[in-house]
Amino acid sequence: MNTRHVIELSPSGKTFEAGDELLLDAMLASGLSVPFSCRRGACGSCKVVVAEGQYRARQLAPNAPAPCYPLAANEMLLCQSHACGDMRLEIPGWSLDTPALSVEAQVLSKCALSPDIIELVLMPDLPLAVRAGQYLKFRLVDGDSRCFSIANLPAEDDGRLVFQIRQVRGGLFSEAVLGDLEAGDVLQLEGPFGACTWQDVDDSPVVLFATGTGYAGIKPILLSALKRNVEVTLYWGGAQPADFYDRVFLDQSVIDHPRFHWHPVLASQGRVQDVALGHGHHWQVAQVYACGNGAMIRQVREQCLDAGLPAHRFVAEAFVPSGGAGTQAPTPAFDPIWEKIGPRYSFDGMLAARDQSIRALAAIASRLRVGMTTGEALDMAAEQLQAMGASHTWHPTYIRFGADTVRPPREGIDRQRRLRASDIVVVDLGPVWDGYEGDYGDTFVFGDAPLHLGCTTALHEVFDETRDAWLRGLTGRELYDFAEQSAVAKGWRLARNLAGHRLADFPHALFENKELADLDIPPSEMAWVLEIQLCHPTEPIGGFFEDILMLDA
C-alpha cells in the first residue's frame, strides 16, 4: 500500500503529498517549483532543512556512486530522499511563487497627462509579483507585442498597474489600440520582465536618469528610494516643458522628502548627464539607474564610470519607440530534442536574468575582502543575491580561494580558507530571477602575481576564441575539443569535467540536462552556457569563466 504523506513547506505554508516516490519527484508532480539539477546528490541544488519528520535515503543501484554533496545533520537532498511520514521542510531564501507569465487585465481608467502622454490604469485578473522598474508586454491581435514600464508599485496600489504611454504616429498599440480603449475592455499581458530594478542593498545615494517616458520605468524606483529615505536625485530630460508631465507629484515630493531633488533638463539646456556631472555627486558610492533611449544610456554609463562610478552600480533599461515595424528580439529555433524549453521561455527574460547575474557577480566581487573565509564569502553572496531580488538559486553559489580554484565546483572545499593579499578567486552564480535562470562566473585576482594574472588572461582568451568557433558552426563536442587545444597552446590545461550545460526558464533540468561537450549539433543561441575552467599544469592555480552563448555578447 502506497501511504501518502503530507509535506509542508516553510515559510510558505504550501503542502504537497508524497508516497514511495522520491520527494523531488513528488514535489515536481504537484506543480511546485523546486531547484534541482544533477539528480545524483552531487550539486546540492535541491538541499532543504528538515524541520519536522523522518525520511529515508534513496536505495542506490549496484556500483552507483554515493551522493557526495556535504550536508549538515538537519539537511537532506530532495532527489535522494523518501518521506517516512508527514514532514515539514524549510527552504531558506527560496520563493515557491513563480510570477505569472500571461494574464488578462481590465481597463480601469484612461486619461491624458499631456498632449501626447496617456495614463492607462489596469487591474490584472491575477496578482503580479512586480519588482520596481519592471515592464509588461502587451499582446496584440497579430501575435506581436509592445513593452511598457509599470509606473507604480502595484503591491501598494491594490494590485493596479499604471502605465504612462506616449502616443506615437504609426504605433501598433499607442495609435491603433490605445485610442479606442474604454473602461471594462480586456487586454492580454505577459511578464513582468526587466532587470532594471530597485537594488535594495544599502543606503547609498541614488541618482536617477530618464528621458521622455523612460520616466515611467524610473518612477517606481524613485518611490522605493523615497520609502527607504535615502538621498535621491532625478534628472529628467525632455524636449519641451510639457514633457515633464509628472511635475506636480515631483514638486510635492521635494517638499515631503528633504533628501529628494529633481531637475528637469530641456534639450536646449544640454544633456542630463552633463547637468548631473556638474552637481558634485559622490560617484564612487552612488547607485545609478537610467531608463530611456539607448544613446542616453550609453553616454550616461560611459561618463559616470569615467567619474568613478563602479560598473556594478549602474543599472539601466533602454527602450526603442514603437512604430510600424516590430522591435522585439526573435526567439531562436531550438532543436526539439536537445533544446526543449518551458512555457515561460522568452528572449527578454533570459537577457534580463543574464544582466542581473552579471551585476550580482560584480557586486559580490566588490565585497570580497582580504582575510575573509570562504564560508563568510558564501554567506555574503547569499545576502547580496537575496537583496537584489533572486528568488533562489538553481545551483549553489560556488566561491573558491587559492588552491581550491583547481577543484570542480561540486567538489568539497575548505570553508575556513582565508583570502590572502595575493590570491586568485573564482565566483560562480546560478540565481533565478523572476522565473528565469541566470548563470555567470568569473575569476578575480588580488595582488599582482604573474601566474594569477596570466591565468585570467588565458581564461578569457580561450573563452572568446571558443565562442568565435561557435559562430562558425561547431558542435558542442567540437567546441570543447577546440577549447582544449586553445588552452594547451597558452600553457594551461582545460578541465573537461566542466563541460557546459543548458539554461532556460526555471527549471531547465525538467527539459534537458545534457552537457554541452556531449552535444553533436551546433548549439543554439540563448540555450547553452559555455563553461571554461583552466588549471595550471604544475601549480595549484585555476580560473573559471562562463556565459550563455549569444550573438551579441
From TrEMBL:
PANTHER family: NADH OXIDOREDUCTASE HCR (PTHR47354), PROTEIN RFBI (PTHR47354:SF5). Residues 5-95 form the 2Fe-2S ferredoxin-type domain. Signal peptide: none annotated. This is (Fe-S)-binding protein. CDD domains: APP_MetAP, fer2. Residues 100-199 form the FAD-binding FR-type domain. The keyword Iron-sulfur applies. Pfam families: FAD_binding_6, Fer2, NAD_binding_1, Peptidase_M24. Keywords: Iron, Iron-sulfur, Metal-binding. The keyword Membrane does not apply. GO terms for molecular function: 2 iron, 2 sulfur cluster binding; oxidoreductase activity. It comes from Pseudomonas extremorientalis. It comes from the Bacteria.
